[in-house]
Design a protein that fits this description.
Layout (H helix, E strand, L loop, with lengths): L1 E4 L4 E4 L3 H6 L8 E3 L1 H8 L6 E5 L5 E5 L5 H19 L6 H17 L9 H10 L3 H35 L5 H17 L1
Antiparallel strand pairs: 1-2, 1-3, 4-5
Helix pairs in contact: 3-6, 3-7, 4-6, 5-6, 6-7
């Protein structure tokens, strides 16, 4: 059984009611809804719609005013940022740490992996993974190349999406933007 609270504009699982009640969080206005109502209104809304409370206290779709080009372009940039974070660890100077390790690994590999001159960024990774210095350097380089490929793909999708939104008619913009946001979101979780 599923229940819907108009006050909270949220669904609640009937099988967890006792837990909600013992925690004091079961909504007083919860009313049982069919599985069909739950499935329709608990997922992603149709394009241009948002869930709202209907006059009968049940969920319904309402029109959302069209968003401006600037908002849609920002949404694409945000999705690209989320996708980038999947490939590059966020944090203060972390990107610099990875860049320095990559540069050291490439120099070490270009020099023929000299055992007498292993950069600390390579030796620390080799030590952490119980690898040889060459294995560590090759892994650092392969990871960097993978990230660059992903970042290039993200940039390509982001720029193509922004251009497509700007070229689209007003009534097509949201759908066009969503196509590119979906592509970026797929990268972010893959």
């Amino acid at each position: 059984m599923k229940f819907y609270s108009a006050e909270k504009d949220a669904f609640f699982a009937g099988e967890l009611r006792a837990r909600y009640e013992s925690a004091g969080s079961w909504p007083a206005d919860a009313q049982e809804v069919s599985e069909a109502v739950f499935e329709e209104y608990s997922g992603r809304p149709p394009l241009g719609k948002a869930r709202a409370v209907g006059p009968d206290g049940l969920p319904m779709w309402v029109e959302v005013p069209a968003r401006g080009v600037g908002d849609l372009l920002s949404d694409i940039d945000q999705a690209a940022g989320n996708a980038r974070e999947r490939f590059v660890s966020p944090g203060y100077l972390v990107d610099q740490e990875y860049k320095r390790a990559e540069e050291a690994a490439r120099s070490f590999a270009d020099a023929g992996y000299p055992a007498s001159d292993v950069p600390s960024a390579v030796s620390s990774w080799a030590s952490a993974k119980s690898w040889t210095a060459q294995q560590a350097a090759d892994d650092i380089i392969a990871t960097a190349d993978y990230w660059y490929g992903a970042i290039d793909q993200i940039r390509e999708i982001r720029l193509a999406g922004k251009a497509a939104v700007q070229a689209a008619t007003a009534d097509q913009r949201e759908a066009v933007a969503q196509q590119y946001i979906d592509q970026l979101n797929t990268l972010a979780v893959s």
